[in-house]
Amino acid sequence: MAVAVVLVLVALGSVVFHMLSPWWWTPIASNWGFIDNTILITFWITGAVFVAVVLFTAYCIYTFRHREGLRADYEPENQKLETWLGLGTALGVAAMLTPGLVVWYQFVTVPEGAAEIEVVGQQWSWAYRFPGPDGKLGTTDVRYIGPDNPLGLNPSDPNGSDDVIVDGGDLHLPRGGPIKVLLRSTDVLHDFYVPEFRAKMDMIPGTVTYFWLTPTRDGTFDILCAEYCGVGHANMRGTVVVEDAAKQKAWLSQQKSFAELSARGRTAAR
Ligand SMILES: [Cu+2]
């Protein structure tokens, strides 16, 4: 009896804890509320199954407890019960997977006219690149990576010379417009993650991954690496500042272009 009561309390306590918990998501700062809804659907389905299983266990422990002279029935098959369990499980799993397929499609379908930025991960820091006045990012290759060219821009690509490079500073993004985030890594797997954006994506050496978002709220948010990438993984932090477009433009104009950085490198080498 005591065990059955404890199990009922565990089920009830879990639900109450969920309702009253102070550890909830930080307020969202992007358009990806749909991702929250997808997680909530999964949460409520798995939560309902958890409560049902625990309560059923409590019921069995109480109803079929040991009593003198009581013998268990032998019932290895129950076609009807198995059919219902199979159907219920299939429905529950489908209900959890379907929204994910829809939201994933949206996540990687970049709207027309989105601004492009690039985020480059390396052990263990972040760097960013914006297209210059021409609006185009230049091509890159790991072969070009060097002390004056940490992101490996192609020096003979005219599209790249005006690219703005932010290496070691904060990332500033304008609020309100769609942004395509291109992701590269120069060494191992990393994962660009800003919890408030509800968006993350692996960065894979040798390829460019991407997603898009529209920042919707001003603020200063942490950038985390969400893929274990070596001993410095936990220190791989950055900061993203979301602000209105005019402020962000002013910040961008203070940053150095690839041409300016390589000229500085040449002067220093002389
Ligand atoms: Cu990392």
Give a brief description.
The protein has 270 residues and is α+β, with helices and mostly antiparallel strands. The protein has helices at residues 2-20, 33-63, 79-107, 245-254, 258-269; strands at 115-122, 125-130, 164-167, 171-174, 179-185, 190-194, 199-203, 209-213, 219-225, 237-243. Copper (II) ion (CU) binds next to loops.
Fold blueprint:
Elements: H1 2-20, H2 33-63, H3 79-107, E1 115-122, E2 125-130, E3 164-167, E4 171-174, E5 179-185, E6 190-194, E7 199-203, E8 209-213, E9 219-225, E10 237-243, H4 245-254, H5 258-269
The structure holds copper (II) ion (CU).
Question: Explain this structure to me?
Answer:
The chain has 270 residues and is α+β, with helices and mostly antiparallel strands. It has helices at residues 2-20, 33-63, 79-107, 245-254, 258-269; strands at 115-122, 125-130, 164-167, 171-174, 179-185, 190-194, 199-203, 209-213, 219-225, 237-243. Helix 1 (2-20) runs antiparallel to helix 2 (33-63) and helix 2 packs antiparallel against helix 3. The termini are far apart. The protein has 5 helices and 10 strands, in the order H-H-H-E-E-E-E-E-E-E-E-E-E-H-H. Strands 3-2-1-5-8 form a 5-stranded mixed β-sheet, with no helix packed on it. It has a 5-stranded mixed β-sheet with strand order 4-10-9-6-7, covered by helices on one side. Strand 6 (190-194) and strand 7 form a beta hairpin. The radius of gyration is 26 Å and the shape is elongated. It folds into 2 domains: 2-64 and 80-107, no CATH class; 115-269, Immunoglobulin-like (Sandwich), CATH 2.60.40. It binds copper (II) ion (CU). The site of copper (II) ion has 7 residues, from loops.
